[in-house]
Design a protein that fits this description.
Blueprint lengths: L31 H12 L3 H20 L4 H10 L6 H46 L3 H5 L3 H43 L1 H7 L3 H38 L1 H6 L3 H53 L5 H42 L21 E9 L5 E10 L4 E6 L5 H6 L9 E6 L2 E2 L5 H5 L2 E4 L10 H6 L7 H10 L3 H5 L18 H15 L3 E5 L7 H15 L3 E5 L11 E6 L2 E6 L1 H7 L2 H23 L7
Parallel strand pairs: 3-8, 3-9, 6-7, 7-8
Antiparallel strand pairs: 1-2, 1-4, 4-5, 9-10
Helix pairs in contact: 2-4, 2-6, 3-11, 4-6, 6-7, 6-8, 6-11, 7-10, 8-10, 8-11, 10-11, 15-17, 17-18
């Protein structure tokens, strides 16, 4: 039974049914407090580097704040009073001040940006590691493209915040606070006038954040939708072309891209309107300082140098404030991405090890399923009170109509799923009590839809056991009857086989999968319709390879062609999640039950096919 009936929720579908595995997803949201706690957890181990960056920030801020204090004596004493002999002294002070400012800024940027990149690396690795710990049901209920978007695009958005935003946030905050202290010390009346626009500024930021954050969440969702659509259409490009659905796929991709475009344009309109408006507000503050400062100077309550110095400080105040607003915009964009990342990190794996899980010792291969029931999260029963026994070295075939529960049954053995009721035992050990690594290391699986990596033939076989020698890999290929076609490849074992092994035939891919399983040398073997997608000639070679693979192993075979399981020790016939028949081929045929009906029907179909082959040649004519 195939559980992967889609990749989660699709938009705009007609008559679609809810995937039994699919979970209701909570709305995307994240609190600033949680974000800060998250930052602290990742940055905590790097506190020495953070401290060095803080030294750079404090040094750069101090130098920047000291510079305007030199303007008062330069204006009043050197320019106004003509004390030109003081100019070299002030020139040296300015040179030292600027040199210190740029040195500390370079230190700050180098340290903080490197720390930011380390932070992003940790986040990306932890997110990917968390994904790998998830059970199959997690991936079956979600679209691959959306998951990829969270690990790539959303992490990149966080990178922009961490690498650039955090550095700017801290340094500019220090500058703003330091400047406020200096201007109040310089002239509190001018300070109050200069800061008059600040309440408007702060109210604008709050309103902007409330509007922009949900919009950025929508933008990230739309981008995930685009990635999902692209990944799905590229994976199914052969079907798209076979049914001439290029215009249809383009139309769907165009709609998703247009939705993303419209959300992005709305975001652009908001911040391109907001930031100039805030810039105008800060300019009003400078105008007020010039107006009031000139009045004070005219009345003799302030010198021209004081007003010039104050204007320099106000520029140092509103410049960082404007920068902080832009950082706030970056933070809002990143918060939308963080919410999507947290949605992954908050997802706890359904299949977990007990704290006291034990290692499975080398086994003989006895498998027992006792009164096993399996339900979807919706409550739909897939398997009901099923019991199965397989002795070491036996072959158990599982047959039945599509959707009867065959694949679900074998997926309980390696704990891809856990039964809702009952238990699964291997050599008397409950699989729930074992570490997943020790359990799965003694189980080999060859699937109907063989997955191969875009790598060499050798490395694809080596995936079964990473420490295998070249001799062991080549021996596994020989035993899988794969050596003959490998030797005909351009670079033999070093040939790159393309994505999902696209450069090989179905039979060749299957034999590489068998070689991979042979190299792993499992005690328990699961064959899920391993020959259903290959032609008759390839099937004969694969059957010989499978006989080699099954030797002295406990084997569970899900069979589409019933003629391939006649020699099984036990054949289980599953119907509606129940084992309705169980015996050898001869006994089941003698009973003339469901198995006999299925076998005879398939046998007649094969006879018709072979008759047509003899009459018309290699393939019968299409009807």
């Amino acid at each position: 039974m195939r559980h992967g009936r889609g990749r989660g929720r699709r938009r705009g579908g007609h008559g679609s049914q809810k995937d039994p595995y699919e979970e209701e997803v909570e709305p995307l949201s994240i609190t600033d407090r949680r974000m800060l706690a998250w930052f602290a957890r990742y940055l905590g181990p790097h506190w020495p580097t953070l401290l060095l960056g803080l030294v750079g920030m404090l040094g750069g801020t101090a130098a920047a704040l000291y510079y305007p204090t030199l303007l008062t004596p330069i204006w009043d004493d050197v320019i106004r009073d003509g004390q030109i002999e003081m100019l070299p002294r002030f020139g040296v002070l300015l040179l030292v001040t600027f040199a210190a400012q740029y040195f500390f800024n370079a230190l700050r940027m180098n340290v903080m940006h490197r720390l930011g990149q380390r932070f992003v690396l940790d986040v990306r690795l932890n997110t990917y590691e968390h994904l790998l710990r998830q059970g199959l049901s997690f991936f079956e209920a979600r679209r691959t493209g959306d998951i990829m978007s969270r690990v790539s695009n959303d992490v990149n958005s966080v990178e922009d915040m961490v690498v650039h935003g955090v550095d700017t946030l801290i340094s500019d905050t220090l500058m703003v606070l330091g400047t406020m202290g200096m201007i109040f010390a310089l002239n509190w009346r001018l300070a109050l006038v200069g800061l008059a626009p600040l309440p408007i500024f702060l109210v604008g930021i709050i309103l902007f954040a409330r509007i922009i954050r949900p919009l950025y969440e929508k933008i990230r969702e739309e981008l995930g939708e685009i990635n999902s659509r692209l990944q799905e259409s590229l994976e199914g490009v052969q079907v798209v072309k076979a049914y001439r659905r290029e215009p249809h796929e383009f139309e769907r991709f165009e709609k998703d891209s247009t939705d993303y475009f419209q959300a992005s344009v709305k975001g652009i309109w908001l911040w391109t309107t907001f930031f100039p408006l805030m810039g105008f507000t800060t300019s009003c503050g400078l105008i007020l300082v010039i107006w009031y400062g000139a009045s004070l100077a005219h009345a003799g309550l302030a010198t021209g140098g004081t007003v010039v110095t104050f204007l320099a400080y106000m520029q140092r105040f509103y410049g960082p404030v404007g920068s902080l607003v832009r950082v706030h915009n970056t933070f809002n964009r990143a918060l939308a991405s963080l919410a999507r990342i947290f949605q992954v990190l908050d997802e706890q794996p359904i299949i977990t090890e007990k704290p006291d899980a034990v290692e499975l010792p080398e086994i003989e291969g006895r498998v027992e399923m006792e009164n096993v029931t399996f339900r979807y999260q919706t409550g739909e029963v897939v398997l009901g009170d099923v019991s199965v026994q397989a002795k070491p070295g036996e072959t158990v075939a599982i047959v039945g109509r599509s959707g009867a529960g065959k694949t679900t049954l074998v997926n309980l053995i390696p704990r891809f799923y856990d039964p809702s009721e009952g238990r699964v035992l291997i050599d008397g050990h409950n699989v729930r009590d074992l570490t997943l690594d020790s359990l799965r290391s003694q189980i080999g699986i060859v699937l109907q839809d063989t997955f191969l990596f875009n790598d060499t033939v050798r490395n694809n076989i080596r995936y079964g056991r990473l420490d295998a020698t070249d001799e062991e890999i080549e021996d596994a290929a020989r035993r899988a009857y794969a050596t003959e076609f490998i030797e005909e490849l351009p670079d033999k074992f070093e040939t790159m086989i393309g994505e999902r092994g696209v450069k090989l035939s179905g039979g060749q891919r299957q034999r590489l999968a068998i070689a991979r399983a042979l190299l792993a040398d499992p005690r328990i073997l699961i064959l899920d319709e391993a020959t259903s997608l290959v032609d008759t000639e390839a099937e004969q070679l694969i059957q010989r390879a499978l006989e080699e693979l099954r030797h002295n192993r406990t084997t569970f075979v899900i069979a589409h062609r019933l003629s391939t399981v006649r020699d099984a020790d036990t054949i289980l016939v599953i119907e509606g999640g129940q084992i309705v028949e169980e015996d050898s081929h001869e006994e089941l045929m003698a009973r003339n039950g469901l198995y006999a009906e299925m076998y005879n029907r398939q046998f007649r179909m094969e006879d018709i096919w072979f008759d047509q082959e003899r009459q018309f040649g290699e393939h019968p004519p299409s009807s």
